[in-house]
Amino acid sequence: MFLRPTLAVLMMLSVAVATLAQPTGDSALSSPENGPRITDPGRHAITGGTVHLPNGAETNITILINDGEIQRLIRKGDNIDLTGYRLWQLNDEAHVYPGFIDPWVPVETPEHDQARPGRHWNSRITPDRSVLEGAGLDDDTAKSLREIGFVAAGIAPNDGILRGLGAVVSTAPPTTNSAADDPTIFSRDSFHALDFYKSGWSRPLQYPTSQMGCIALIRQTIDDAQWQASSGTNHSHNSLDALTTTDAPIFFNIDHELEAFQAHEVIGTFQNSRNLVLIGNGTEFKRLDAIAETGASIIVPLRFPRKPDVSSVGKAESVDLSTMMLWEQAPTNARRLAQAGVTTSLTTSKSRKRAKFFDNLHTAIDAGLSADDALAMITTIPAELLGVDSVLGTIAVGQGASLVIASGDLFDPDAEDVEIRDVWIEGTRYEMSEDESHPFDGAWTMFVGPEDNPSFTMPFVVDGDDITIIEDDADHEEASESDARHIQLTDTTISFLVDDSKNEETHILSGVLSDGRISGSGISPDSNTFTWAATRDDEQPADDDEEKNEEEASKDEDNDKAPEHLPGYPFGAYAYQSIPEQETVLFTNATIWTSGPAGIIDNGSILIENGKISVVTSSDIAVRLPNGARTIDLQGKHITPGIVDAHSHTGTWTFGTNEGAQAVTAEVRMEDTTDPDHINWYRQLAAGVTTVNTLHGSANPIGGQNVIQKVRWGAIHPRDMHLKGAKAGIKFALGENVTHANWGNDGRDRYPQTRMGVDTIMRDRFTAAQQYAHKWTSWFNTSGKKPDSVGMSDSLAKSLEAAAKSKGPTRNNDDQPRRDHELDALAEILAGDRLVHCHSYRQDEILMLAEIAREYNFTIGTYQHGLEAYKVAEVVRERSRGASIFSDWWAFKVEVQDAIPQGGPIMYEAGVTVSYNSDSDNMVRRLNTEAAKAIKYGNVPEDDAFKFVTINPAYQLNIEDRVGSIEVGKDADLAIWSGHPMSTFSQCEQTWIDGRQYFSTEMDDALRTRITAERARLIAKINGKPDAKDEDEDSDDDEDSETPERLSLAQRIQLDQLRKHNLNLWLEGKSPATYMQPGDCGCGMSHLGVIR
User: Fold this and answer.
1) Domain 100-111+119-392 has CATH 3.20.20.140
2) Is the pTM of this model over 0.70?
3) Which of 384, 224, 86, 304 is nearest to 790 (CA)?
4) Which residues contact residue 242 at a Cβ distance below 8 angstroms, ignoring those fewer than 6 apart?
5) Which of 287-291, 531-535, 576-580, 747-751 has the lowest mean pLDDT?
6) Cα–Cα distance for residue pair 139/281, rounded to 1 Å
7) Residue 679: predicted pLDDT
8) What's the topology of domain 40-99+393-435?
9) Does position 567 have pLDDT exceeding 80, yes or no?
């Protein structure tokens, strides 16, 4: 058996056997030994090096191992009897760590057969599937983990939504002896593995196609499992039972930092709290505060983005600031999570190369992660998360003897050539690398005579089998070198010849290594003997030049570190450091467009306090100014209510706008997937928009639930955008979209295919909702149970009661109904507690929905688009709260060919509440001028025309008591314009929401200045340039630089053209990253042919 010198066996006090031999097992599953038993006492003693114990690192420790467990930890001075133990001696530089644990390693797991009894209807729901049903941890993955010190892995099924049950297994290789035990399974059914898996829009469509559909499916499945377990209803054993019978934490895999909140909220469906462990993606620092508030633990990969290429003008302009910021801050993720109090572990999964784990870990440590925290993140913390801390994670008596032995400190980024030498798994040693170094390697200084006053000194360097003599005396201006001859080395002895280059004589030297010092004797050319000694030069004090270089290197490292303070929310260019303060402000001398009974007030004043409007008056009436208030003089300016957009999809594309696989998806909720980071929110603020109705798409006759949001840019949590207490709503759709009329043969896989089918399925679901509400109401009355006993809100129970009335009096019902989130929403419609906002074009379909509303006695919120609603304006007026339409879009498909720009004014004259909406991230920035089109096409009075984008949409959404007009008691949502609010020459100068100034042109200028400076800093950093100009560098720009100006219109056009140019390159199959770009030759954007 070959042993490295640094781990040499000094004595064998037991019978020697091969290190990797597996003894005959005791398991009932192991086959009988066919021959002599393989035996191994399994008794080892590891001594030396630095041992990392639970209370810190210690030296002079001997670890006694017996039968795979740590039997005893012996400190210096303790009595020790190593009889029967195999001794492993480590050198002083070695480090011994607890075996590392990767808590999340997805592995291939067989899918359950469709014919399996008790299988869920959705193939992605397999909570009863065990990861151990397959091969488990494959040999290649186990080896790759073992090579970097991981002795155990939490393995999980690698696909699905409710994926199944994970386990904790050993990374030991499989035995070659059939009679030996297989690698240990430390824990079965250790956790439930979940994921936001969605099928997308590939054919055939499979539910769910969207993130919100995935969330709805998880929510429904959890409720179904709880209903089965608690309702008392007899049911056959099925796949959902595992969710209630297996008490284990939830390990939820996420691929976006916003998914952390989605996972946290949907797991709240469990009536009994479950520990949530998030498998992150490495960008959690972008939403750090809110993630910490969830209380979830997190497992993060060390996955860092590649350095952006900004090496030319064109390349630099094509990289946005957030990309550069992400590159700089990503290595701080683990450290920031730990500092925020989040229980954090690390995984090798999700990284490009598992073997680079420690390289990436060193990057994280350089970014501020402490070595102690880093060690805990791959030992004690994952052991606790996986519930195996009694056998793994620490070096302690009674723990499994799973260890990592390294040649140096693995967690020191500055340590050179540190390698993992051995990995011990349950008392079995696996050699990872050989130590090719020699105990004598290094720089030495030999001396003759007293050490403090030697008569002769000679530096020399040992490198393997070579010894270099360094001669440095008065006769040499610089040190000269020569090679020793006849070198003989063992682990503890050294012998060599030294030639004196001056006198051409030879000295014989021999010595013994002991306690880091060489002591020996020598023979001079005249045959006289002498004694000598040598000490290592490693600890010699650095000279002044070395100290100076180290100080400069330290300064360079400080300059290279990412800024400690993150930019705010949302992470990126226009981040706000904090939510604007709520102010008390008196606006004076403005033209006030109230959109209310007061009409337009000239030279008016508005006082806002505590987020509400408290005074609206003409300027000739004095207003008492509260303490701490400030006054803003708006002479010559106009102030309006914040604009309300009744049809928005801003921020929905991140996680999906449509759940399109099923005809009815009333269970999905747009509020579940809010994205507050989308830059268009900021642009809407710059256009005076303060409130939007975020709608599901139009892929289904009955779509998902909408959410009304305020444009609170900089929100810490996605739900901070939501308008609390707003009237609930839902998206319906009619026409070509829902019948897949334009999808060709690919669209023939889903009912309905005709407009008649749309009518039928709506009636079917409303009838089902009535029956459902009747069952629940009768059960509540019979059982005397409260709604919260089954996880239902009081408000929903009241809606069910109201919806049940159409089915007549309730009867006794002892059987608890099954909760159906789809029918919950439809029952709320029947109760009048949820408004229908229906995508509609043709008049016949508009009438059809009106008839359904009459029969089932509910009021439609809005006809969205409603391009033929002008033909049936009276019905729209009677059966809905209005029509929210396009101002002048038409002829973009067959079913809108009868649309006319006069449609809005015609309905206005017929008494219909009309609004203009955007349905576009672009159009929403011009809704003020869209309102002017009501004047152009229908001579609508300008005061009423502006209501098309303020109070009218607010009324349609049933939030007119909160927003849409400037009236006392309403939310202080205001837009201040440089001139007439419907003029194309006017600019929104300030936007206020809830009495907070969320936008102003001054704030925007300051942000742009900050962005320019930050881009310059990061580009310089990426390109390896210093942030500050070298003092010795000649420069013609010694004068103080001016503050960067806001980009001119021409510059903005150039930038826009560059982006379009890049898009065209992609469409042509050319990569903008490698293709020559405008600006590369220093001629600006003139090559594009648009700037002349």
Assistant:
1) yes
2) yes
3) 224
4) 127, 128, 164, 165, 192
5) 747-751
6) 26
7) 95
8) Urease, subunit C; domain 1 (2.30.40)
9) yes
